[in-house]
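Hey, I'm writing a tutorial for new members on how sequence and structure tokens pair up, and I'd like a real worked example in the thread rather than a made-up one. If someone can provide the structure for the chain below, I'll link this post from the tutorial.
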Amino acid sequence: MATNPIRDVDLRARALVQDMVASMRHAILSVYDAANGYPHLSRIAAQADRDGVPMALLSEIAAHTHLLEANPRAGLLIEATQATKGDAMAQPRMTLQVVARRLPRDGSEHAARLDRWIAHNPKARAYAQLPDFHFWRLEPHGGLLNAGFGQAYYLQPADLKKPPTENGRGE
């Protein structure tokens, strides 16, 4: 009889998840393309919002943006960013089921988000302020962390968000 390969999420797994989201600069987004009945995958610019939730900076003209507008449920693949040697299949990665929501482009919250984004990716200054680029919040509803051989964990939304700090905002 095979044993269950899925472990209970512990502090180490939760820290790895939060570190992977905090350090990501890109991810693979999978959205459903109803016109042909297959998933559509794209490598996207991605970072963590101040509370640790993934967000993307997407152009209105991109195919994945139109598909998200039609169906906001998507998959997100995030890989560990540290340079490591050895078998790529032994490296940490996680898949998340997310619901995408376009964020407003006005107000102080947008300006602060844009400043944080450019601070983490200065080259984004060239396109981040173009009128067709919008931030999308990719709210996790669950997922799977593969932290290496024999280290799999089902994730809940709370496993991804940073715990609140003294100011209550996860910063």
